[in-house]
Amino acid sequence: DQQVKQNSPSLSVQEGRISILNCDYTNSMFDYFLWYKKYPAEGPTFLISISSIKDKNEDGRFTVFLNKSAKHLSLHIVPSQPGDSAVYFCAARGGSNYKLTFGKGTLLTVNP
Amino acid sequence: DVKVTQSSRYLVKRTGEKVFLECVQDMDHENMFWYRQDPGLGLRLIYFSYDVKMKEKGDIPEGYSVSREKKERFSLILESASTNQTSMYLCASNTSGRYTNSGNTIYFGEGSWLTVV
Fold first, then answer.
1. What is the average pLDDT across B50-76?
2. Among A100, A96, A3, residue whose Cα is nearest residue B106
3. Is-contact B79 B20, C-beta < 8 A?
4. A8 → chain B, closest CA residue
5. What is the 3-state secondary structure (H, E, C) of chain B?
């Protein structure tokens, strides 16, 4: 039972345009959501997060939107740059422990 | 900056060998985790530990064990390596402070590539 779903395995975008990565979740107990970026042969690095009490969080070119009623969040990257090409993982936290549940990831390719 | 260090980046082991993957964090974090990453499967939690000598099974603990004798160190053990354990293994840590500004962000090491032949 996959509680965090990233339904698009890959996304290709032109440099300078917007990249939108989507994530859906099923567990209503999730109260915090994070996005991680991963380059090949490296560990994931934290990108941006959002609490369930908010619907938007912005950090430079990166914005995360949360729609609790739809159990959906999205990461917007504007403008996209070739260096943004990586696998992006959506993650969610909930319950009494502090582990994260990850989606399967979306490979973003930004073409020059 | 948080530092999570995995001792081995690349290992090649034979089927049936005992394998140790070591991880050290320098931020005095209470929680430590071992994940594996496989193409198309994302990051899957193997084991985690919320205190010294404490451990809990994650989603895929079969074939693995862990050891946490000191707060900063968390080891993953493959008692008898098999080819289906060929993967990238990621150690991570975070604090138990639930309402920190970081929101319990998990910090990852650089990963250990294990090939079992």
1. 94
2. A100
3. no
4. B40
5. CCCEEECCCEEEECCCCCEEEEEEECCCCCEEEEEEEECCCEEEEEEEEEECCEEEECCCCCCCEEEEEECCEEEEEECCCCHHHCEEEEEEEECCCCCCCCCCCCEECCCEEEEEC
pLDDT band, residue A4 (cuts 50/70/90): very high
pLDDT band at A100 (very low <50, low <70, confident <90, very high): confident
pLDDT of amino acid B105: 80
pLDDT tens profile B9-28: 999 999 999 999 999 999 89
Chain A residues in contact with B92 by the CB 8 A cut-off are: 43
Interatomic CA distance for residues B99 and B17, integer angstroms: 42
The CA-based angle B87-A20-B103, given to 5 degrees, is 65
Exposed e or buried b for every residue in A17-44, given b needs 16+ CB within 10 A? eebbbbbbbeeeebebbbbbbbeeeebb
- Percent of chain B at pLDDT above 70? 91
Cβ pair B93, B29 in contact under 8 A: yes
Give the minimum alpha-carbon distance from B54 to chain A in angstroms, rounded to a whole number: 13
Q: Chain B interface, mutation test: which of A96, A99, A102, most B Cβ atoms within 10 Å?
A: A99
CB contact under 8 A, B43 and A42: no
* Residue A104: other Cβ atoms inside 10 A: 22
